[in-house]
Design a protein that fits this description.
Helix content: 10-25%
Radius of gyration: 31 Å
Structural class: alpha+beta
Oligomer: single chain
Largest sheet: 8 strands, antiparallel, barrel
């Protein structure tokens, strides 16, 4: 087709879509874009002949080979379109919100037509996808009667039955993983960001150019230089001012305090219509910071020099040097932002001799026309209150702050006019052991650390945690060589790790001392997010005690683990309902709900009928309803039992009974209806309709944008022993509880895995919570890549535990506590005490038939404090799991 039809349909002065061109290079990329236009659909695009050959798939792809999805062939798109994510203005062709749902590469199958163009013209494409969500063998087949090359021809897209197929899954892949693979954002988040509506920005610029008959640089400046600025040209070289490291914030109103950004320090010079981006090393990186360079060029000034930091923002609003490095390396997931904190030159005037506060006032005036969330942003400050500002910076998980004298001129070099204060702490610790490396790492995995307790004898050591980051290859090899010579059979310290952790540990004589950077001590005397700094040869192990700082930032201490266990062992527990005989044919109505076909067998392995499932829910209703109440639900309905046809149902219809409440939720640019229940009648109604799985949102209906429930789903590869699943759950718990101080809860999945669950106070939004859970999992994977994976593909799971964090995005769901599963033998997802992992319990141990007996004999409720927990994800926690490098 080429791009003639694509360009004919679009006015590129009004739409943010790229005009593009037919590329000469050959490639094999694919992209699927979720597009909320008049109707929500998925645009499936394969790179071919220098363009993206495109099909609109109304229902989206399915991993079920039985699901053949209509794919309407539409006009070719330019390759640049594969990165497009944003808002097409209303009234333009395809107006609506677009996100990158999946992307990767595609390859023709061995038994397919060898030439992709010939295969396409024949109307039969057999190919393999390697994406972030989709994998394995797929087919695109033109329907009978359609001819290649015509617009709007109908094809079918369907999955082959291979290792990546999930028979019976229906729409599960698009329902459970709705968000962008490029930014992690949902359609709703993208649609809510007015800065993504590029049309208005373009029109402003066009209008501005017409008005001034040139660029803003030729117009009279909007920002007069401050008094005291002297006339001068921009000097050939400007020495930047640097901050001196100090131990605590300075006092007094003469100081202003700014947040410390994690990026590149850059002077942007605008002169004669050209822009330079001068780094600390004197290099011009204008081309590498292209988006910022263009924004500087559009500033309302003839010439200017700005001082600031180029950075990339994470979803939670912090800056990340690693994300910036990725962006510089060609990763288009992140957008660069320039945080300008000083103005050194403006329209023929040198401002360096002017006091800082006046320079910043001039800078603020210069940037006042910039969008609040634009490419160039004013780095604001607080005057005075240094200690409070410092505590706030640390609570946000930042590296620290910069303090500057408000009354001083700009002075090149390092001096005392600018100071920097860091949040991280350091101290020496004794090395008492180490763990073996995992994956490709050499030398060792982590060092086990201890300190001498001041309340005991000098030689008594107490465990203080472990450190597994901060090493390079040379350090790892040197440490292992030294530690091998010091090995001993038993630990030389108190409260040593036990169980699986102990089995992977080597104990050593306490002869070596390490210096470690960290954020704080937990209430249990364990280091939080430590980083190895080096060995200290000048310190004797006997000298090492826990250092007590004189003026620590105010921190909320983590609750001790022992106290948590005690709270969970509360004697309080919900009551069980009446025990009734499921074979009693006289039971035809329960909780006011008339049962149709009550003797229909839902689970043939045990002969469990619909009536038995209904009576099961009647008996445990006081246990399950608190975990379902007022949450949007996604249902798995199996009207003929779990061996028959099952399907996911997100949205409810008029046919649903009134006992299932209608909940309005914004989705894909429109309001849709979800179901929610708060009564036994509603619960029985679900079972009456053949619902065998109840999946919940991680939020309540009164505030669906703020999640209060997080789940880490541990799914083992085929053949892995249960001990590996238990080990993985304890690993997740150890990070969340021991390092971060977050109380966790455990339940079986009703299958072969476990769920580690985390209740939260409703503060953060979906993107923030999902980013945190992703960072938690990636931290665990990085520590032991041979045992865990965060990737959904079967190939990535071989011999590993897949820890799924994707259930914590907006619209994603997870199986509810005490819900049945549509699997053999009527299993139930069952909350456990953590101590029960030492027993012979498995993921599918508890069923419709034996769970009531378990609940009746329990010494308390394993999740008694779940709904009462008051905890949230702090900035320090985010930093601890690597959300800031």
């Amino acid at each position: 087709m080429g791009l003639q039809e694509y360009k004919r349909k679009r006015d590129f002065k009004k739409t943010p879509e790229p005009a593009g061109k037919v590329e000469e290079k050959e490639g094999n990329s694919f992209v699927i874009q979720k597009h909320a236009a008049t109707r929500l659909h998925y645009d499936f695009r394969l790179e071919m002949e220098g363009v993206l050959r495109s099909w609109a798939v109304p229902k989206g792809p399915s991993l079920d080979p039985a699901e053949k999805r209509l794919a309407v062939h539409v006009e070719d798109h330019p390759l640049d379109y594969g990165d497009f994510e944003g808002i097409i203005p209303k009234g333009e062709y395809g107006g609506g919100t677009v996100l990158v749902w999946d992307r990767g590469t595609w390859h023709l199958e061995e038994d397919a037509e060898k030439d992709p163009v010939k295969a396409y013209k024949k109307g039969k494409l057999k190919f393999r996808l390697e994406g972030e969500k989709l994998h394995g063998r797929w087919n695109l087949v033109r329907m009978h009667g359609d001819k290649a090359g015509e617009n709007k021809e109908n094809w079918l897209l369907f999955k082959e039955n291979d290792e990546a197929a999930v028979p019976g899954s229906g729409d599960a892949v698009v329902q459970e993983y709705p968000d962008s693979v490029a930014t992690g954002l949902s359609l709703e988040k993208i649609a809510a960001d007015p800065d993504r509506v590029w049309k208005s920005n373009r029109e402003e610029k066009v209008a501005k150019k017409k008005e001034t008959k040139g660029t803003a640089r030729t117009a009279k400046t909007q920002t007069p230089p401050p008094k005291g600025a002297r006339k001068a040209k921009i000097p050939a070289k400007i020495e930047i001012q640097l901050a001196t490291l100090v131990s605590e914030p300075p006092q007094g109103e003469e100081w202003v305090h700014e947040l410390k950004f994690d990026g590149y320090r850059v002077l942007f010079e605008l002169a004669d219509g050209k822009v330079k981006a001068v780094t600390r090393g004197g290099k011009d990186w204008a081309d590498r910071f292209e988006t910022v360079t263009r924004a500087v060029a559009d500033l309302p000034a003839r010439d200017a020099v700005l001082d600031g930091e180029v950075a990339v923002l994470l979803p939670d609003g912090r800056t990340s040097f690693q994300a910036l490095q990725n962006a510089l390396g060609g990763d288009r997931k992140a957008e660069m932002v320039y945080f300008a904190f000083d103005l050194l030159h403006l329209d023929g005037h040198d401002l360096r001799g002017v006091p800082l506060l006046e320079r910043k006032q001039a800078l603020a005036r210069l940037l006042e026309t910039q969008p609040r969330q634009g490419t160039i942003r004013f780095s604001d400050h607080v005057q005075g209150s240094g200690e409070a500002f410092f505590r706030h910076a640390c609570d946000l998980g930042l590296e620290g702050m910069i303090s500057k004298r408000a009354d001083l001129p700009y002075q090149g070099g390092r001096g005392k006019g600018w100071l920097k204060v860091k949040c991280l702490k350091r101290q020496e610790l004794v090395i008492v052991g180490f763990t073996d490396p995992e994956g490709s790492r050499k030398g060792l995995g982590a060092l086990l650390l201890a300190v001498n307790s001041p309340s005991k004898k000098a030689e008594d050591l107490v465990f203080a945690g472990k450190v597994g980051t901060g090493f390079n290859a040379k350090t790892l090899a040197d440490l292992r060589k030294r530690l091998d010579k010091l090995e001993r059979k038993t630990p030389a310290f108190e409260n040593a790790p036990r169980g699986a952790e102990a089995r992977r540990s080597h104990w050593v004589e306490p002869k070596l001392v390490a210096e470690v950077a960290f954020t704080e001590w937990t209430g249990d005397g364990i280091l939080r997010h430590p980083t190895f700094q080096g060995l200290r040869e000048d310190k004797a192990p006997s000298e090492i005690v826990r250092e007590v700082e004189q003026k620590p930032p105010a921190k909320k201490k983590a609750v001790a683990t022992k106290a948590k266990k005690t709270a969970r062992r509360s004697k309080d527990r919900p009551p069980l309902g009446p025990e009734r005989d499921p074979k009693d044919k006289g039971i035809a109505e329960v909780a006011g709900v008339k049962l149709t076909n009550p003797d229909r067998v839902f689970y043939p392995e045990q002969g469990v009928t619909k009536r038995e499932v209904v009576l099961f829910y009647e008996r445990i209703s006081a246990w399950i309803l608190p975990h379902l109440k007022d949450r949007p639900l996604t249902l798995v309905r199996c009207p003929g039992g779990h061996t028959g046809q099952c399907f996911y149902q997100k949205h409810i219809t008029e046919q649903f009974p009134d006992s299932i409440r209608r909940v309005e939720v914004e989705e894909g640019g429109e309001t849709v209806l979800y179901g929610a229940i708060d009564s036994l009648t509603g619960l029985v109604s679900l079972a009456q309709m053949g619902v065998l799985e109840i999946h919940i949102w991680g939020a309540h209906v009164d505030d669906v944008e703020r999640p209060d429930y997080v789940v880490f789903d541990l799914d083992p590869d085929e053949g892995l022993g249960w001990d590996r699943v238990v080990e993985g759950a304890l690993k997740v718990r150890g990070l969340l509880e021991e390092e971060l101080g977050l109380e966790t809860f455990l339940k079986t999945t009703g299958g072969k895995g476990l769920h580690v669950c985390l209740p939260l106070v409703r503060r953060g939004e979906w993107d923030e919570v999902k980013a945190f859970t992703k960072a938690v999992v990636e931290r665990i994977v990085a520590e032991e890549p041979g045992r865990y994976t965060s990737k959904i593909t079967k190939a990535s799971r071989k011999g590993k535990i897949f820890i799924d964090y994707l259930r914590n995005g907006r619209g994603a769901t997870s199986i509810a506590a005490y819900s049945t599963r549509a699997r053999p033998n009527a299993p139930v997802s069952t909350p456990l005490f953590w101590e029960e992992l030492e027993s012979d319990v498995r993921g599918n141990t508890y069923t419709v038939r034996n769970l009531p007996e378990r609940l009746e004999g329990l010494d308390g409720d394993p999740w008694a404090s779940f709904l009462k927990a008051r905890q949230s994800i702090t900035a320090a926690m985010k930093k601890a799991v690597g959300m800031k490098t």
